[in-house]
Design goal:
2,3-Dihydroxybiphenyl 1,2-Dioxygenase, domain 1, globular, 12 strands, alpha/beta
Length: about 220
């Protein structure tokens, strides 16, 4: 049976305490180098990116892995809090994930009507490694809702999606949301537009992904 990779999966976010060390370790494990994405001015973080090719789907051009951590060239925020709870990382951790709904405003309205708290819709931007400005909208809550297993929504608007760049790529073999309460999680994901996500029973809330490159597999 083919793995269930959500059709509207935008990207997975791995938070790390040390960006250069994490990027080197991922390349060692998979044989695929991450490329610099850019930095988030004023937020204290930067990222590296790798494209993802979801198993069983030919349309993986808009899916990628974001490796997010403290930017060595920025001061950390005064309160020590980093976006997407990246300040909590003591090791590379699959912290959260994003879905790209076909209609952002309508999905946010439906989600709020259903009583799901996705936080505020924020305008975000960063400078790419090439010096271009990338702008997008996303839903934001801190701390992350349900410890990151509830995806945030993202809309790239007129910006070129990061995965449209010539990114090196890994195969995304498996993506699973693991929770003690499967039925409620499936209902929540259905409202968010990710009802085709694989949900499994586990003792705690966590995300799992299995990636494959020419050098080997890597599991988060």
């Amino acid at each position: 049976m083919a793995a269930l990779i959500p059709a509207h999966l935008d990207h997975l976010v791995v938070t790390v305490p040390d960006l250069p060390a994490a990027v080197a370790e991922i390349e060692r494990a998979t044989g695929v180098p991450a490329v610099p994405g850019g930095r988030h001015p004023g937020l204290g973080t930067a990222n590296f990116l790798i494209g993802l090719a979801p198993a069983g789907r030919p349309d993986g051009a808009h899916t990628y892995l974001e490796i997010l951590g403290p930017d060595p060239e920025q001061e950390a925020p005064a309160d020590g809090t980093l976006p997407l709870d990246a300040h909590l990382a003591t090791a590379p951790t699959l912290r959260t994930w994003a879905i790209h709904p076909p209609a952002m405003a309508a999905t946010v309205a439906a989600v709020r009507t259903a009583g799901i708290d996705v936080g505020e819709v924020r305008d975000m931007s960063r400078e790419t490694a090439e010096g271009n400005l990338l702008a997008w909208q996303l839903t934001s809550r801190s701390p992350l809702p349900q410890e990151g297993i509830q995806p945030f929504l993202i809309d790239w608007g007129d910006s070129v999606h990061p995965a449209e760049a010539a990114l090196p790529s890994l195969d995304l073999l498996e993506f699973i949301v693991e929770v003690p309460y499967v039925a409620a999680t499936r209902s929540m994901l259905e409202v968010l537009g990710a009802g085709d996500t694989e949900v499994a029973t586990g003792p705690e809330r966590r995300l799992r992904a299995r990636l494959r490159g020419p050098g080997g597999e890597l599991t988060f």
